[in-house]
Amino acid sequence: MDLIKRVRIYEMVVEKIKALITEGHYQVGDLLPTEREFAQRYGVSRSAVREAMIVLHRLGMVDNIPGKGTVVVTDSEPSVNDYLLELLNAEEQSIINLLELRKGIEIEAVSLAAKRCTKKDLAVLQEKLELLEKAVEKGEVAAKEDHDFHVTLSSITKNDLYITVMTAISSVMQNTLEKTRAETLNKPGGPPRVLSEHKAIVHAIKNNDDEKARKAMRLHLDNVLHKTYQELDHKNIKQVKSR
Amino acid sequence: MDLIKRVRIYEMVVEKIKALITEGHYQVGDLLPTEREFAQRYGVSRSAVREAMIVLHRLGMVDNIPGKGTVVVTDSEPSVNDYLLELLNAEEQSIINLLELRKGIEIEAVSLAAKRCTKKDLAVLQEKLELLEKAVEKGEVAAKEDHDFHVTLSSITKNDLYITVMTAISSVMQNTLEKTRAETLNKPGGPPRVLSEHKAIVHAIKNNDDEKARKAMRLHLDNVLHKTYQELDHKNIKQVKSR
DNA sequence: ATTGCCTAAATGTCAGACCAATTAGCAGGG
DNA sequence: CCCTGCTAATTGGTCTGACATTTAGGCAAT
């Protein structure tokens, strides 16, 4: 049985305005037409437009400024991914917790990748590895290249959940690393070692050796965890000294 | 510098009504006071109350029914967990994808648990195992006992992310199993084998042997995956036959 | 007992008014 | 000429009152 669903007017206005933003008729930072104009344009009352504005505001898409107007804050509506990011990004979550979760996710991901990797997948992954290599040779932090590599790796699993979760974890880590100046990767003897670990992972995937791939990934992430522990210890010591 | 934040009236009304619901002044299914009464009670206009109602409705806490009133749908505001559930529960996600993700999460979780398990933790876990055992002996499906066991296991990691994610995965799987009549656990030779796998996991944790714990968990989840594959094949065959 | 209609009350929507904040323009003093 | 401060217009924020639509319950006719 199909139940008839009441459709509130403000909901239709929300969709209309949302479409205007996502389709690019108004860019981020632009001022939307006034509420009174929307009301006239859509043949509804200003109340309906205001209710729609409240929804759009709570979606984080617009900001209503009295005396000025309504400004576009972002051009895309929040997705489930954003909520996942919120979970991972919560301040209570330590970077250690995040790294441990990543360990579970990525070790199994690389295992699946080793079993399911096609020639095309491998080519893309090796390309990402080369980009990472070049960036490291230039002495860059290469955070973006590292992110790309790991996301590409997760995509080889062909499992949307791994792709979504790994993408979220990786971007949160990238943010965290930016805040902490990415000291981890910059430490003496850091990048070359990280690079060789990445190569070992790709090598195992190439041979479709899932067990070796897991071991290589576990080794890599244990090293990252170890360095992070050292870094945290170092900071704590500095904090104590500064008292 | 502390910026002064404009506080919209409807936001305060939202907090007021939300508190009334979460504190139990109104139970699920109850009819809230009318919008006009709220307006009078809080000394605001009905517009403000209506805007608050829209927010509460979009939070999924209330349902506004014309001619009747506003009924309470749930007594707790949605948390990040609910959005995680939404991600995992999305129809596009196959049960296979979910199981594969669970493999990554839980293998590493049991590894952490083996390293961090206290005597008290172990006692609780063994208690859950006994409950599972008794339920299986009675010939029950024991879905809830299985859920409890795995959530307890994840809590031993002391890592909030693992606890949150594992709880979500487990409850989604429980729902899915309910829909599919939990055939997996009911198959001949199913429960006893599952039980022995659980015992092996607990045994490894007891000995703080993280590597053996991972292997035991991998074996267990591979078996679950295998059975699920068989089940899906079986259903496909039945579907073909019924054409 | 069922059907149909009437009424009361609630939400949904509308129109208009006023308040508060912002902006732009203009007048006046330096 | 430039800066200051006032004024008016514009915009979102709130309030009020009205009407439309939906629901529930009472009541009479069938």
Summary of the model, kept short:
Chain A is mainly alpha-helical and 243 residues long. Helices cover 71% and strands 3% of the residues of chain A.
Physical arrangement of strands within the biggest beta sheet of chain A: 1-2
What's the Cα radius of gyration of chain A?
Answer: 24 Å
The level of helicity of chain A is: over 70%
Give the averaged pLDDT of chain A, no decimals: 87
CATH class of the largest domain in chain A: Mainly Alpha
The number of helical runs of chain A is 11
The CATH superfamily of the largest domain in chain A appears as GntR ligand-binding domain-like
Q: Structural class of the secondary elements of chain A? A: mainly alpha
User: What about the largest sheet of chain A?
Assistant: 2 strands, antiparallel
Helices and strands of chain A, in N-to-C order? HHHEEHHHHHHHH
The dominant shape of chain A is: elongated
